[in-house]
Amino acid sequence: MKDLWHGRFDSNEDIDLRIWQIVKPFDDVSKEYGICFVGYDTDDGIKRNQGRIGAEKGSNAIRKAIQSFPIVENLKIYDYQNLKNKVLEEAQKEYSLKISNVIKKGIFPIGLGGGHDIAFASYSGIRKAYPDKKIGIVNFDTHLDMRPYDSGATSGTSFKQILDGDKNIKYSIVGFKKQGNTKRLIDTAKNYNVLILDEEDDEKFINDELKKYLADADILYVTFCMDVFNASDAPGVSAPTIMGLDPKKGKRILRKIMDTGKVVCIDFAEVNSEYDIDSRTAKLAGSLIYDIMNNLTK
């Protein structure tokens, strides 16, 4: 694990421990509750979607951003490492199997991307672990990612793929901006009864609408495309968003979703180190992950 995790060292006393000092490989999973990072270090889907590449380094950038955070008491931390296969279809198969394995061990998976084609891979792993459950998806994203995939999957096709293949799904998007979506994409989403919540919508309205829409979902999957956030906070993405979602607003909405106790998987996509100023995007993802870790111990 030393190739993925190393950071500031104060001592080996419990009071001084930092995350990098306690991370163990997934093979060492015990019966104690914990989280497991799963790397999706490919941007093949972004390249196919004509985006700017560089997100393949996102997984390790997020690890670096959180490695020196203090540990969260009573929470074990594991890492399933990165992909062996980087071609989109094979990467999704490999990653989905890892997600399924983590869930079946009773551990909470946190995916680190990579392109937002991680979403189809995460969903596939969740469905393997929960074949009969109704899955509610909350996508923090500027873009609907419901493009046609007649010529193959990309980072922009995941949610149409999911909805086409599975009727026991509800899909909602938080942080939507009309400037990033054509009429065809919006009409497609409406045809699938997608809950579209605009970045400008009031926070209470977003929380209330999500609560109503996802009330009948058995489990929830939350995914972040980091371009949902304002470009000054998240410059290191494939498609930066001007006047995007405020990170603090996003964090508070995420906390409300976590409070349902239904969330079984979360991932973070489109962290592009090539364009990240002072690692802001990776640090923002890391900050949200740390908040999730503290929430899980409640």
TrEMBL record:
<dbReference type="InterPro" id="IPR005923">
    <property type="entry name" value="HutG"/>
</dbReference>
<keyword id="KW-0369">Histidine metabolism</keyword>
<dbReference type="GO" id="GO:0046872">
    <property type="term" value="F:metal ion binding"/>
</dbReference>
<feature type="binding site">
    <location>
        <position position="145"/>
    </location>
    <ligand>
        <name>Mn(2+)</name>
    </ligand>
</feature>
<keyword id="KW-0378">Hydrolase</keyword>
<dbReference type="Pfam" id="PF00491">
    <property type="entry name" value="Arginase"/>
</dbReference>
<dbReference type="InterPro" id="IPR006035">
    <property type="entry name" value="Ureohydrolase"/>
</dbReference>
<feature type="binding site">
    <location>
        <position position="141"/>
    </location>
    <ligand>
        <name>Mn(2+)</name>
    </ligand>
</feature>
<feature type="binding site">
    <location>
        <position position="225"/>
    </location>
    <ligand>
        <name>Mn(2+)</name>
    </ligand>
</feature>
<dbReference type="GO" id="GO:0019556">
    <property type="term" value="P:L-histidine catabolic process to glutamate and formamide"/>
</dbReference>
<feature type="binding site">
    <location>
        <position position="143"/>
    </location>
    <ligand>
        <name>Mn(2+)</name>
    </ligand>
</feature>
<keyword id="KW-0464">Manganese</keyword>
<feature type="binding site">
    <location>
        <position position="227"/>
    </location>
    <ligand>
        <name>Mn(2+)</name>
    </ligand>
</feature>
<protein>
    <recommendedName>
        <fullName>Formimidoylglutamase</fullName>
        <ecNumber>3.5.3.8</ecNumber>
    </recommendedName>
</protein>
<dbReference type="GO" id="GO:0008783">
    <property type="term" value="F:agmatinase activity"/>
</dbReference>
<dbReference type="InterPro" id="IPR023696">
    <property type="entry name" value="Ureohydrolase_dom_sf"/>
</dbReference>
<dbReference type="GO" id="GO:0033389">
    <property type="term" value="P:putrescine biosynthetic process from arginine, via agmatine"/>
</dbReference>
<feature type="binding site">
    <location>
        <position position="116"/>
    </location>
    <ligand>
        <name>Mn(2+)</name>
    </ligand>
</feature>
<dbReference type="GO" id="GO:0050415">
    <property type="term" value="F:formimidoylglutamase activity"/>
</dbReference>
<comment type="similarity">
    <text>Belongs to the arginase family.</text>
</comment>
<keyword id="KW-0479">Metal-binding</keyword>
